[in-house]
Structures are given as structure tokens and as C-alpha cells.
Amino acid sequence: MLGEILNTYYLQIGSFILINIMLAISVYVPLSSGQLSLGSAGFMGVGAYTSALLTIHFDLPIVIGIIAGALAASALGVIVGIPSLRLSGVYLAIATLGLGEVIRVIFVNWDSLTRGSVGLTGIPQLGREILEFARGVGFEPAMIGIKNNQFVFLSIFLVLLVLVIVILWFVVRQQNSRVGRALSSINLDEKAAESMGINITYYKVISFTQGAFFAGLAGALFAHVIGYISPADFSYHRAVEVLIFTVFGGSEVIIGSVFGAFFLTLMPEVLRFVSEFRYIIYGILLVVLMAVRPQGILDANLLKKIKFKRSKGGIR
Amino acid sequence: MVIEVKNITKNFGGISALKDVSFSINKGEIFGLIGPNGAGKTTMFNMITNIYEPTSGEIIFQGENITGIKPYKITEKGICRTYQNIRLFSQMSTLHNVMVGGHSQSHSGVFSSVFRTKAQRKEEQLLIERSEELLELVGLLEHKDTIAENLAYGQQRRLEIARALASNPSLLLLDEPAAGMNEKETDSLYDLIKTVQSRGITVLIIEHDMPLVMKLCDRITVLNFGEKLAEGTPEEIQNNEAVIEAYLGKEEDEVDA
Ligand SMILES: Nc1ncnc2c1ncn2[C@@H]1O[C@H](COP(=O)(O)OP(=O)(O)OP(=O)(O)O)[C@@H](O)[C@H]1O
Ligand SMILES: [Mg+2]
């Protein structure tokens, strides 16, 4: 029964949506303290290559590789985050975009390690590893009536779903706390925040590094979901795409990033039937949105209205 | 003595906003800083909170030289301020503004915030109670969920005071708190500042509303073109020839005109 419902193509799109949500959150978190970082593609690349190389060359379990990838990206986040404190707004955006390109060029030119622009293949795949593990403990996909490859795609999707939920939980809880208020006060008025006793250096580096961590994590997962990576996967096109998720969905609220990544990943797939026109539609949509709703689809006001309506309905 | 300002000079490029200004404030005093526009009053606040570093001179707070230390550390040590041109966190609720003011009085980090440890929940609860108490003090408790930018002007000024008080300062700096207030609001501001004083907080106030300053302050320093012109009790200042010439007299002319 389950075997007939599970469509591997849909599961794969679902997985890409989830990875893109992580990437959108990696832009959202630094932005919540007023830092516009376009380094996501670079940090994603660091996470992907770190995990891929460790698992290929040292036979490390994928889990260890992914953690190492995310940590490597965060370490780079700290190293870059501290000097970039002097920059803000557009200047920070350009500097982090530049960082991403530097990282990409290193991947292209460090041939002996990265195999240059050809990229890495034969990266251990998350789904296969989970399948092997499941078989190790005596479980066969056939036992729940699905094929092996359905199981592989399903397990990847579920792992990513759990991770996205944990990340959302983390970010939302952090936001509704002393740390979140500090970040948001820095976003609203840095000088006043500092006068209120907030160590702005500390909090900016924290949020920048968290962004790098989430991007690195997404990158590492991407590598083990796809199985091959090349520097082109982490070019500035990716950086801009990820930024658009957040800006389109609404950068004031985290649900905006989630919605933006969901909608903009799904749309080109849904519009597949109009083939080449879909990117024209995508472009037009962005232009129209920025003209009529520059704060993005979702913002604090809209959410309040939705909540208000719901609670009013509840009383009646 | 709570604070000693020693020979502070501040040059901005060619202009010197402060020239060798010294004064000191006793514990529990309400101390006025007055003078014509551009005299350097706000610049003095920026020196004390180290928004800008002085060109020369020293600031001693509770026996410790605090010249050149980071602004957030100065707040931790017990000096907090309000701004002449209101600088609230405009998109945050009134309550959250005050809670941000309480940042230095709380400690929860990322970990305890995300896992909502027992200590964190207790601290958060305490912070909310303390903040609500301060909102009650400034008469804004009923507006605690209002977004700050939607408050009336006088309310915003009082919210800034509550936010500053949340850092539990020993020295409160008020930059023209009565600006834009009507008579009634100014009267309640007087009561508020007196209450603050009765809680053992020393107050340094910049204000152009002379009746308020004269009624409120224990001592006053007058600045003119960056220099200290006079210092004394309100009576002494009101009868000081140089002050009348440079400031008080001129102000009356403006009113006549
Ligand atoms: N950041 C700055 N850069 C350059 N000049 C400045 C700066 N801040 C203040 N000044 C100058 O220093 C002088 C004193 O300004 P300040 O703001 O301290 O005056 P004030 O006494 O607070 O006046 P007001 O009553 O109008 O608020 C003015 O000439 C002002 O232009
Ligand atoms: Mg001023």
C-alpha cells in the first residue's frame, strides 16, 4: 500500500525544499541582528567538501562527516565574522559574497584535493547508509511494503525533516529569550543597544557563526544526498538564490524564510510543463513582489492579523 | 562622590565641543547641565558613556577610571542614559524595550535560552516582573504590549527612562527629558525624577526648561561654547551675571521676541 503512495520524485523535491529551508535560515539568523551575509554558498561549500573528503578518504561515518562539515563552516564563520564587524549593510554583503567566490576558486584550483572543477564523485550516500544500517538491525523495506529505493528517498526526507524542525525549534526559542532580544535590539539600533549594556561584538559574531553553521550543515547534507559536488554548486548564483528565498518569503519573520524556500523551490517544478518559460515567470514574480511588497510575502503585521482572526474565531 | 569629570576636552576636527571641563557629582544629587544650543552638553554625555572618546581628560566613576572602556561595560558598571532624540527600539513592544534595558542584570546565554533551563525561566520571570514594575513607575504599564513607535511622544520619553532604569544604574543621565512635553507631563516628570532620586540613584540632567531645572536640581553646571561658565546652586546660577548674559537673559529675549 505504502509502496504505491510513495513517489521518489516527490520525496526528492521535498528533500531539496528542506535543504533550501536550512539555507534560507542561514541568511535569516545573521539578518536578525542586522547583518546581511551573502556567504551562505561559501559556507555551504566548506561544509560539503569537508564532509565529502572526510568520508571518502578516511572512511568516517557520514554523521561524523556532517558534524565536522558544519563545524568547519562555523569556524570559518568566526574567523570571517570578527573582522567583518566593521562592515555593515551593502559592504558586508559584498565582502561575504567575495568570500564565497574565494572559497569557490580554492575548490577549483586545489586540484590534488578537490579534483578541481570536475568535482568529487562517489560521496557516500546518506540514504544507502541508512538502508545498510536498517538491514544490519534486521529491517527490510519489504517488511513495510516498499522498495529499497523508496526507502532510501523516504529516509533522507525524514532525516532532513527532523533536522529542519530541530533548527526551527532552536531559532524560535533563541528568539524569544534574552539572546533574541539582544539580537533584535542590535538590528533596530546598534548604538542604543550598546548603551543598554549589550556586547554587540559578541552577539553579532554569535549570529553570524550560527548562520555559517546552518549553511555548512545544509552543504554537508547536500553532498551526501546528491552524491557528487563541484565548485559550481557553490557559486554566487547559489548565494543570490538563497538570499531571494529569505527576501521573497519575508525577512522579518523566520516563517518567511521557510515559506520562501518552500515556494521558490517548488514553483519551477510545478511549472515544468511550460518548460523554458518558467524562469521568466520566476523573474516576473520577483520583480512584481519587490514592487508591491518589498518586505516579502510574510511579515510581523500579517502574522498578527492571522493570529488575531484565529483567536477572535475561537472566542465566538 | 559618584562621578568626577576631570579636564575633559573634545575636538571634532576643527571645532572643540568641550574645552577643559571639570565637575563632580555627589551621591544622591540631582545635578543639572545647562547651556545654549551647541554648548557641548550632549557631547559631555557621549564622553561619560564613551560613545566618543575624549581628546583629553579623565572620567572617574565610583573611584574607578572609566575613560575609554567600552560603552556596554560602562552600563554594567552602573551608568545609563536616555537620548535627546529618542532612540527606542521602535519595532519592539514597550515591555520588551524595558527588558532589553535589563540585559546587564541578567545572564542567560544561548544554551539556557534554547533549553529553557530552570534558572533561565526564573530569571525571565523576574525580569518581566521588574520591567512591569518600572513601567508602572513611569505610568506605561497599561501600554506594555504597544509597539514603541506607536506611543505618544511624552510616553516615549518616559519609556526611555524606564529602559535606562532597568539596567539598575547608580547614575542616570537624562538628555532633555522634558523636550516636547506639555505642562502636565512636565509636572509628572518632576515627580518621576524625584522618585528616582529617592531610590538612591544620582541624576545628571540636561534640560532647557529652566523652571523645571531650577526646581529640580541641587547643583547646576553651565556650559557655553564648550567651556564651563559657572557652577552652583539654582539660586547662585540665576543671579550669576555671566550666565544671565550668555544664556538665561538671552532665552528671555527669545521669549519676548
Ligand atoms: N559627532 C560629531 N561630529 C562633529 N561635530 C559634533 C559631533 N557631535 C557634536 N558636534 C558639535 O559639537 C558641538 C556641541 O554639540 P552638542 O550636541 O554637545 O551640543 P548641546 O549642548 O547638546 O546642544 P543642544 O542643546 O542643541 O542639544 C556642536 O557644535 C556640534 O555641532
Ligand atoms: Mg544636546
TrEMBL record, chain A:
Transmembrane segments: 6-29, 36-56, 62-82, 89-110, 151-172, 212-230, 242-267, 279-298
Pfam families: BPD_transp_2
One GO cellular component term: plasma membrane
Keyword line: Cell membrane, Membrane, Transmembrane, Transmembrane helix
InterPro entries: ABC_transp_permease, LivM-like
GO molecular function term, any single one: branched-chain amino acid transmembrane transporter activity
Primary location recorded for the protein, binned into one broad class: membrane
Annotated membrane topology: Multi-pass membrane protein
Subcellular location: Cell membrane
Protein name from the UniProt record: Amino acid ABC transporter
Lineage of source species: Bacteria, Bacillati, Bacillota, Bacilli, Bacillales
UniProtKB/TrEMBL annotation, chain B:
GO molecular function, one term: L-phenylalanine transmembrane transporter activity
A GO-annotated cellular component: plasma membrane
Source taxon at top rank: Bacteria
Keyword flag Transport: yes
Residues of the ABC transporter domain: 3-250
UniProt-listed InterPro entries: AAA+_ATPase, ABC_AA/LPS_Transport, ABC_transporter-like_ATP-bd, ABC_transporter-like_CS, BCA_ABC_TP_C, P-loop_NTPase
Keyword terms, alphabetized: ATP-binding, Nucleotide-binding, Transport
UniProt-listed SUPFAM superfamilies: P-loop containing nucleoside triphosphate hydrolases
One GO term (biological process): L-valine import across plasma membrane
Listed Pfam families: ABC_tran, BCA_ABC_TP_C
Protein name per UniProt: ABC transporter
Provenance organism: Ureibacillus manganicus DSM 26584
Lineage, opening ranks: Bacteria, Bacillati, Bacillota, Bacilli, Bacillales
